[in-house]
Automatic annotation (TrEMBL), chains A, B:
GO terms for molecular function: hydrolase activity. It comes from Hymenobacter jeollabukensis. InterPro entries: AB_hydrolase_1, AB_hydrolase_fold. The keyword Metal-binding does not apply. Gene3D superfamilies: alpha/beta hydrolase (3.40.50.1820). Keywords: Hydrolase. Residues 19-256 form the AB hydrolase-1 domain. Transmembrane segments: none annotated. This is Alpha/beta hydrolase. Belongs to the AB hydrolase superfamily. It comes from the Bacteria.
Amino acid sequence: MSVLKRNNVHVAGRGQQTLLFVNGFGCDQTIWRYILPALAEQYRLVLFDHVGAGLSDAKAYDPTKYASLQGYAQDVLDVCAELALTDVTLVGHSVGAMIGALAAIQEPARFQRLLLLCPSPCYLNEADYHGGFDRVDIDNMLSFMERDFVEWADTFAPLIMGNPDRPTLSAELIHSFCQNDPVIAKQFARVTFLSDNRSDLARLHTPCLLVQCAEDLIAPLEVGDYLHTVLPDSKLVTLPVSGHCPHVSAPRETLAAMEAYMAA
Amino acid sequence: MSVLKRNNVHVAGRGQQTLLFVNGFGCDQTIWRYILPALAEQYRLVLFDHVGAGLSDAKAYDPTKYASLQGYAQDVLDVCAELALTDVTLVGHSVGAMIGALAAIQEPARFQRLLLLCPSPCYLNEADYHGGFDRVDIDNMLSFMERDFVEWADTFAPLIMGNPDRPTLSAELIHSFCQNDPVIAKQFARVTFLSDNRSDLARLHTPCLLVQCAEDLIAPLEVGDYLHTVLPDSKLVTLPVSGHCPHVSAPRETLAAMEAYMAA
């Protein structure tokens, strides 16, 4: 099984410089479609699906490998190696941002910069760190997901997407969640919400754009501030929008932030 | 400019047998995402965007070439040649169905069968033929589109999609329409709605599945009956659903019809 098939890799666009998109939890590469047309003329776009999502090969799922985000980061590096990508601008959303950061830590020479949308190195509240969730809240959410994945998606997608006045956005995210292999998605959620990658960040030396949303239930403003503090070569942009998926709910603002950073 | 870049070709799935998807007006390849996961294990999936849609190269647009559906059919054949596809099962939606039929007429050896969703060889009412629209209605619609493409999309997407109780479906189609290059989309609409390819059908000898929807404002039941009559090697299935996009609004029923035909 080739890497390109395993991760359903799709190369598009007509530029020289590579943008590599790393999806967040429960999403496949079609989630980026609102911002891609504006980028296709100038960049080479590399899209893929995590194993268990989209049109990836679910048979390639290995519970041991994917028991930490490192397994997903390895797949990012596999895609880079297979396509011989260099000077990559990695665009990562949510847990995809942290997966991208781990990939850049492991092979820094591969990456020019990281554009991270709603990143968080740790969703749990800890001493001197506000991740946004108490452990009991995460445990309850994961138990809910264990019991009924579809009901979980129906309940949590609107909270994640925000923008309650635009229900089509949440409907899209619910559908996206429900397209995943539920057994794999449940383990991926556990790995996502219980990981603490704060100690890895000292080894991240790639320039980063951090894009946070003013009202985001998953990655609160304190997390963006934390990342900006511990990553010396980072720029923090706070979009005046709500929700945890600005590439879906606020594509113009998201594109503007990405393009301004890349032009600088 | 390679064909693969021009038409944003994406190859996915893990089977040997090829399914080639030909999009309808105003849609890009992400419109198929509701039915693809169920097909990815068993088939090789070839997706692409017409020039002017999705992540295709709009600079490749040639008003002369694309002044008839034959220009779009040539692109289908270019994709087949570039990937050396054989024994292709072509899945075409709406005008994509007729584009696929023209491709199969031109290179019959390339195609094993056609699965046509809501096909129509002619949208105009003519003597002894009920296409569904009087010329004045088409002209008025095209004038509306000329004046204000976005307003046209807002007005017509709900009529095309049907299923008014599920507004997220129409919202998706509105968004899809508005992602197109409007100048190209306007000419494509004109070519779509004013073409009459009935006389070509006598030269189509590839086996066809015709999938029509019980309530479809764009391709009424008379059109399916007409196609079934003039295409001896065709099977007609009427889904008990509404709308012109069953791969979006009724993916399970659509898949069932496709899979039953392919298994027979």
